[in-house]
Every structure is written in structure tokens, then in C-alpha cells.
Specification:
The complex is a heterodimer of chains A (118) and B (110).
Chain A (H helix, E strand, L loop, with lengths): L2 E5 L2 E3 L5 E8 L8 E6 L5 E7 L6 E3 L7 E6 L4 E6 L8 E8 L5 E4 L3 E5 L2
Parallel strand pairs in A: 2-11
Antiparallel strand pairs in A: 1-3, 3-8, 4-5, 4-9, 5-6, 7-8, 9-10, 9-11
Chain B lengths: L8 E4 L5 E6 L11 E5 L6 E4 L13 E6 L2 E6 L8 E9 L4 E4 L3 E5 L1
Parallel strand pairs in B: 1-9
Antiparallel strand pairs in B: 2-6, 3-4, 3-7, 5-6, 7-8, 7-9
Classes of the chains: A mainly beta (118), B mainly beta (110).
Chain lengths: 118, 110
């Protein structure tokens, strides 16, 4: 059974940093790209970032480019999202998602809430 | 602002059918696979349709997907109260080099 478990969310002040983690199990982690998708309160889904299976290629939404960094540790079956220079508009539930080969998200974590506020 | 446009809401009585449209452009829907996601409030999204019209195992055939040109459609037949949720289309946008989601559609069972 595929499981994705996010952690690291919480309350942070504007301009601060936070690192999210997503521990994966139930599939060959090193064979698949992984992504982060967020959802602001009462809003729709927004893709944030994707990293390929080896970690050699990364992609970011314009809204987070230069501030967020995605990475992965295939030995630990974990993907990370380092979030710097956080803004109020980054407040959202952040979901980790496994990306299938034809670019859709076939499994999702339960999400972790990030609140940026003073 | 999303590049994929969906109606804000659709509704129908139990047992009836609803369709949800997703309008895009040649840089996204026109040249890439479309997927559809269901999100019950307070829970994580779940994929219903991938590669335009394929259903993952466990998704009932009441859910169907189609694509024509730069638009896609999700159909739900035999509507049930458990189908009340938000539905999103999604695809890769080759011009933006980004994955894009639709604006979302709330389905209400009357």
C-alpha cells in the first residue's frame, strides 16, 4: 500500500523558513518523480514543485521560484521542500504527491498546514 | 489565476448525470493528457481519471472523461450523495513549464 506522510508544517513569521518532509512507502521510491501541491484556505489546488526520480531535475511554479527548494533522499525514501522568505500568501495545506509516468498525481499525502503570520 | 477554466458549480438530483467542463489552450489541454481529481472537503484529492479517459482501479465506471481539442469533460452518472465534492482538472502546460489545475467545480446533489 502506497503511503505518503508529510511533516514539518506549523506557524512561521513572514520572512521565515520552514522545511517540509514527505516520507514515502509502498512503492519503488527511486523510480518516480515526486511533487508538492498546495491549497490556500478556501481556494483551489496549486502545483508548487516537482523533482524527477534521481533528483537531477527540478521544476517550480513562478510563485515560489527562487524561494523554495525541492530535494529528495532516495536512501531515506523522503522528499523535502525547503521554504525560505515565506509570505502570508504561502499559507496553505501542502500536499506531497507521487507523480505517475504520464504526469498525473496518483497518490497524495494527507497534507500539512503551513501558516505564515506575525 | 488558473489557465484552465471550470464552472464554479453544478448540481443535479440523485441518480441524474452531471458534466464538468475544463477549458484550456493548445499549450496545455491541446497537447497533453488531462487528469481529473475529486476532493471531499477536509481530505486530500484523489485521482478519478488519467490520460484523458482512463480510470484507476477502484474508480466506478459512473465516472468518465473525454477530451476534444483544447477542452476536456468529466461526466458523472447515477449521481450519489457521496459524490458531493470539489472536482479539478489538471494537465501539464508546455509554455509555462508548469503543471496547472483548473479553477475547480463544486458538485451538489440536490
Amino acid at each position: 500500500e502506497v503511503q505518503l506522510l508529510e511533516s514539518g508544517g506549523g506557524l512561521v513569521q513572514p520572512g521565515g523558513s520552514l522545511r517540509l518532509s514527505c516520507a514515502a512507502s509502498g512503492f519503488t521510491f527511486s523510480s518516480y518523480a515526486m511533487s508538492w501541491v498546495r491549497q490556500a484556505p478556501g481556494k483551489g489546488l496549486e502545483w508548487v514543485s516537482t523533482i524527477n526520480n534521481s533528483g537531477g531535475s527540478t521544476y517550480y511554479a513562478d510563485s515560489v521560484k527562487g524561494r523554495f527548494t525541492i530535494s529528495r533522499d532516495n536512501s531515506k525514501h523522503t522528499v523535502y521542500l525547503q521554504m525560505d522568505s515565506l509570505r502570508a500568501e504561502d499559507t496553505a495545506v501542502y500536499y506531497c504527491a507521487k507523480r505517475a509516468d504520464s504526469y498525473y498525481f496518483d497518490y497524495w499525502g494527507q497534507g500539512t498546514l503551513v501558516t505564515v503570520s506575525s | 489565476q488558473s489557465v484552465l477554466t471550470q464552472p464554479p458549480s453544478v448540481s443535479a438530483a440523485p441518480g441524474q448525470k452531471v458534466t464538468i467542463s475544463c477549458s484550456g489552450s493548445s499549450s496545455n489541454i491541446g497537447n497533453n493528457y488531462v487528469s481529473w481529481y475529486q476532493q471531499v472537503p477536509g481530505t486530500a484529492p484523489k485521482v478519478l481519471i488519467y490520460e484523458n479517459n482512463k480510470r484507476p482501479s477502484g474508480i466506478p465506471d459512473r465516472f468518465s472523461g473525454s477530451k476534444s481539442g483544447t477542452s476536456a469533460t468529466l461526466g458523472i452518472t447515477g449521481l450519489q450523495t457521496g459524490d458531493e465534492a470539489d472536482y479539478y482538472c489538471g494537465t501539464w502546460d508546455s509554455s509555462l513549464s508548469a503543471y496547472v489545475f483548473g479553477t475547480g467545480t463544486k458538485v451538489t446533489v440536490l
